[in-house]
Design brief:
The complex is a heterodimer of chains A (213) and B (330). With 213 residues, chain A is an alpha+beta fold. Chain A has helices at 38-61, 89-92, 98-117, 151-168, 173-188, 191-205; strands at 5-9, 13-20, 23-30, 69-73, 78-82, 87-88, 120-121, 130-133, 136-139, 146-147. Chain A contains 6 helices and 10 strands. The N and C termini of chain A lie far apart (54 Å). The longest helix of chain B is centred in the C-terminal third of the chain and has 27 residues, at 221-247. Classes of the chains: A alpha+beta (213), B alpha/beta (330).
Chain lengths: 213, 330
């Protein structure tokens, strides 16, 4: 096997880039957390590895660009998937003008709509988890994703998107969020309103939020 | 005339009535407090405020005496204007307004959450840490960006300290709950599965508390305490680690009352080691609610002329951390 280079030490996993069966791949390995109880730790790593690989494949089938899963090793809590040669949206955003931000977020809204329609929530919609390649957006890191049609889970998904925009891209957060919602509602149609009501409810549930800000 | 200034700070948001005097050089001259401990159950806002009103003058007198200053020597009176319990905030604000009128010195309203962060930056001299602020009322992962402390993760329902204290009360442990819970947990052996809830960058503790309380009857208290702490601290460590990876801040600062927990300190220190970040904890006397942190933040605000006339020195029970402009860090 060819050598692997560590490209990212994330919060719960290490990402290595390398070759596997001739493919350019990412090895996502969930690492043991020394600070966590061993039983809890192995349960979290195994179940998230298994679920994430299923969610990534299923999302592709729903028409949402994600990496191709080549191999899952539950003993090593490792997923081997295709490498996406692109840049995280988080890094691209500061260089983007208003028009392209709008276009991108309409697209992202549609993608999230397709996931929700298909019974999947991503669980961690941040701009670090979106890779831009040739004008397409790829979703990565489904480690907190779920199979669920629950309104609550969908609401949290959108709430997190909004929060990321506000904390990391607050100059353009309104434009980006409004575009996101317009894309989302194009796929979700009449269900959008119900989800958005839940989003503002979730927001109000947070500490010290007055009304709808 | 010396150029050193002194600010007196009044903390009065929940359990604690505190008074602190801090110099413009960042020295804590005094930091006195009186704590309301309910006979049973959790905090009763009205009774807490009555306790604070009764203890205010002695606490302030002690603080001035310990600082070896008279009220006329201070350059401003700062108070925590929120967030917190309305009755307590009103008592603290009334006391601060009176001191300001008596001394003819400006009144400076301070956001309580910001004060927990700023006192940490003061003692550690760390310029730009990722902040984990955990107490009975707040659970926030925050980092400074473009003029404000932005919130990267928080609890979606109850605070970490609230969850642990409530559970400790259900077990019949007295006050303070967290240290007693931790010593029980130190003898725990086996892990009991409890709901481990992480939603993106946010945590949620209400379901965890409900389930843990439900299992009291059938479980060994040592094991249950261990499991509750493992899950509660584990989810916080996870969102902290994500925020550290996302913001790429060079260090982490643990502040707030629950920062005193040795177990939580160990866990977060381990998170920092994995990310080659420096780890800091606010010292115990400045970790919980205290007047010195309000005084110091009041001094920072005073430099920016963020004083308030008595007439508009309103309290703000729901004042969010990320609503506050922080001009002294621009």
């Amino acid at each position: 096997m060819a050598e692997m280079t560590l490209i990212k030490k994330g919060a719960e996993a290490e990402l290595y880039r390398g070759k596997w069966q001739g493919f350019d791949v990412i090895f996502k390995r969930r690492i043991r957390k020394p600070y966590r109880n061993p039983d809890l730790d192995s349960y979290i790593r195994t179940s998230r590895t298994s679920l994430e690989s299923k969610l990534i494949s299923e999302s592709r089938r729903l028409g949402v660009p994600t990496p191709i899963i080549y191999f899952v090793d539950l003993d090593r809590t490792e997923i081997i998937m295709s490498y996406i040669p692109g840049l995280p949206l988080k890094k691209m955003m500061p260089t983007m003008d208003e028009t392209s931000i709008k276009q991108f977020f309409v697209k992202i809204g549609k993608m999230v709509g397709r996931l929700h329609r298909g019974g999947i929530v991503h669980g961690d919609l941040t701009t670090s988890n979106m890779i831009v390649k040739d004008g397409s957006v790829f979703f990565i890191d489904f480690g907190l994703g779920e199979y669920t049609p629950d309104l609550e889970a969908r609401g949290v998904d959108i709430h997190l998107m909004r929060r990321t925009l506000e904390s990391s891209h607050h100059e353009v957060s309104k434009i980006a969020y409004n575009s996101f919602i317009s894309g989302y509602s194009r796929v979700m149609g009449g269900e959008t309103e119900e989800v958005l009501r839940r989003v503002s409810e979730i927001r109000r549930r947070g500490r010290y939020v007055e009304g709808e800000r | 005339m010396s150029s050193v200034q002194y600010v007196l700070g009044i903390e009065c948001t929940a359990h604690t009535f505190g008074c602190g005097v801090v110099s413009s050089e960042g020295t804590v001259l005094s930091n006195t407090k009186a704590e309301y401990v309910p006979k049973t159950g959790g905090i009763h806002p009205r009774e807490a405020s009555q306790h604070h009103a009764a203890k205010a003058s002695a606490t302030i007198r002690d603080a001035l005496k310990e600082a070896d200053l008279r009220l006329s020597d201070v350059d401003a009176v700062a108070f925590s204007a929120g967030p917190g319990l309305g009755p307590c905030l009103r008592t603290g604000a009334t006391v601060a307004r009176m001191l300001s009128l008596l001394s003819s010195k400006p009144l400076v309203p301070v956001n309580h959450c910001i004060a927990h962060i700023e006192v940490g930056r003061m003692v550690t001299e760390e310029e730009d840490p990722l902040v984990v602020y955990v107490s009975g009322g707040n659970t926030i992962v925050s980092a400074f960006s473009d003029g404000r402390y932005r919130i990267f993760g928080e609890t979606l329902d109850i605070a970490l300290g609230n969850c642990l204290d409530s559970f400790a009360r259900s077990l019949g442990l007295g006050h303070p709950g967290v240290p007693k819970l931790e010593s029980l947990a130190n003898e725990g052996r086996s892990f009991i599965p409890l709901p481990y809830v992480v939603k993106g960058q946010d945590v949620s503790y209400s379901g965890l508390l409900t389930m843990a309380v439900r299992k009291i009857e059938e479980s060994d208290p040592h094991d249950l305490s261990l499991s509750l702490l493992e899950v509660a601290y584990g989810t916080l460590a996870e969102v902290t680690e994500r925020a550290l990876a996302h913001t790429e801040k060079p260090s982490l600062l643990l502040t707030g009352g629950v920062a005193r927990s040795p177990r939580l300190q160990r866990i977060l220190e381990s998170v920092c080691q994995e990310h080659s970040s420096r780890f800091y904890v606010v010292p115990p006397d400045l970790a919980g609610d205290n007047g010195a942190m309000i005084a110091w933040t009041g001094y920072l605000a005073l430099k920016e002329d963020l004083t308030a006339p008595i007439e508009t020195s309103y309290i703000r029970p729901k004042w969010r951390l990320d609503e506050v402009e922080v001009p002294w860090r621009r």
